[in-house]
Structure formats: structure tokens, C-alpha cells
Amino acid sequence: MEERHYVNSPPGRRRIERVRQNSSSGISKVVQLVGVSFALVCITQIVLNTYFWQQPANPNAPCPSGWTKFISSCYLISSVANAWDYAKENCESHEAHLVILNDEMEWRFVNYLGGELKLWIGLYVSTDCWSSPDVQWVDGTKLNFTLVKHLNQGFWTTPHGWFYIDPSLPCINNWSLATYPQNLHWICEKMYN
User: Rounded to two decimals, what is the model's pTM?
Assistant: First the structure.
């Protein structure tokens, strides 16, 4: 370490300057160490999140080949695009159904799994001659999902339509409604045994 010499300063003063320089460089090293440690923790968390998102909850109960397990369901994204009705039938042919989003965690997982694809989900608007439009899932359950409060309430006035996830929309509002036939990819869901 370089010692500073001052022309008119007493020897004790030189020692104080050296101690200040040592303590400030020590603090700087601690701050750098904390910063690097925090960065490593963040990177580790990202790696672990990615790993666990794709790991089965029960490794003894595998999903079929090509399906991805999350919590208690298996998911399959189509390799082709087609109409909602075709997507529904295709999922049923795999003994599954178009995905039913039960909570925010599942919604986030499906968004992650789908990447940049627009995906049909199992939500649609149906009507009959005697009632107003009804939004329901493919299993017949009514829409009961806390994130829907952010959707445009104009969705509920259309007599028919099919919902899809559009990743190009803001994350909380990324459900969209198709009121005319479109060809999109889809995601099937089934419970694993």
C-alpha cells in the first residue's frame, strides 16, 4: 500500500489517513461482495424456478410423452393451429379438455408454457334462445377467477365467442375473445393419475 507523505503533517496524521484509506476500501469490498452475492442468489432463484416449473409433483405418476406436468395436471400445446371447436375435440380425443384456468398460478404457468403463441383456452360464451350470454368453461363450470375483473366487461354482451390467451397483450389483461372463427394453437389439460 502506498504511504502518503505530507510536508507539514505530523507522523500521527499519516497513520490516520492510512486507516481511513483501509477502512473505505474494506467497506467498498463488502458492498461489492454483497452485490455479487445478491446477483448469484437471483440467478440461482431463476434457475430453480425454471427447473421446478417443469418438474413433476410426483415423479412416479408420469404424464404421457410430449405432455408437461404442473401440480396435478398434464398439459399439451398443439403443434398446429385450428378453430376452437376442432381444438376442443382434439383435446377430448386425448382424454383431456381445453385448459381450465383455476387460479393465478396455473394462469402464469400456461402463459410461461405457451411463450409467444396465442392459445385457445376452455372458456367460451354460450347462449340459448331464452337467456342472456353465459361465460363458462368446457366442463360446464361458471367463470370464477379473480383476474377476470380486469377484463373488458363488453365481453359478456356478445352472443357467442371463444377465449384465448394473447401474449402480445398486457399480462393481466391477456385474455381475448374471438367472435368469429380463427385458427390458433391450443393447450389441453388432463389430470394425471
Answer: 0.62
